[in-house]
Specification:
single chain, alpha/beta, Rossmann fold, 8 helices, globular, Cell_Envelope_Assoc, Rossmann-like_a/b/a_fold, YdcF family protein
Length: 219
């Protein structure tokens, strides 16, 4: 796919539609644990550290190994680098656990749950911290795999334009956004997640972006 310096007005609106859809718009409230999902986005660790320092939860678990898109930035693993970043921001080392083996969202949740059980940590509520456009999939996945707990979702607060500028690769972000949208409908069929509402405007925006060539993250 040829990189696009400027999106057309229609496609820009479609990206914004998907961006807003994946934001669960949760009000973050105090919880037993914060779970930072590994990815290419170090903002996950920043958000988790900020919430910890505000007293939102007393313990963080960073979960994630590596993917082809993260191995260069985080050669020792996403969870390890996230932990180091959070410590640099003032989180005590003893307030962070790492789960360094997960390679997808389902494993992030199931292996974090297993780690906390092993550590004797009782969890009734959690804040799941992710990339902004991963919130809905994280929520649907955790609701399926860990239905006993109360879940809220959080990301580093920023607009779509701020995020695109921060990451520096709009095509990559948009392709991943399109891929996550597909997974919202496909993963429940496979038993990986619970079903989510899928409004007609989201369906139309997704189809136009697929037609425009943002398909590299489709399954």
């Amino acid at each position: 796919m040829t990189p696009r310096a400027v999106l057309s007005d229609t496609l820009r609106a479609d990206v914004a539609t998907l961006w807003d859809y994946h934001d669960m718009h949760h009000g973050v409230r105090p919880a037993d644990i914060g779970i930072g999902l590994g990815s290419h986005d170090l903002g996950v660790a920043t958000c988790a550290a900020d919430l910890y320092l505000r007293g939102t939860f007393p313990l963080i678990v960073f979960t994630g190994a590596n993917a082809p898109t993260t191995v260069n930035d985080f050669p020792r693993g996403e969870a390890v680098h996230y932990r180091e970043h959070a410590i640099e921001r003032g989180v005590p080392a003893q307030a962070i656990l790492i789960e360094p083996t997960a390679t997808n969202t389902g494993e992030n949740i199931s292996r974090t749950r297993a780690l906390l059980t092993e550590q004797g940590v009782k969890v009734r509520s959690a804040v799941i911290i992710s990339k902004p456009y991963q919130q809905r999939r994280a929520y649907a996945t955790c609701t399926k795999l860990w239905p006993e707990i109360d879940i809220t979702c959080a990301s580093l607060p920023m607009s779509l334009d701020e995020y695109l500028e921060r990451i520096g690769n709009p095509d990559r972000v948009i392709s991943m956004l399109v891929g996550d949208t597909q997974r919202i409908t496909e993963y429940p069929k496979l038993g990986y997640a619970v079903e989510q509402p899928f409004p007609a405007d989201v369906q139309s925006a997704y189809e136009r972006l697929v037609e425009a060539g943002y398909t590299s993250r489709l399954i």
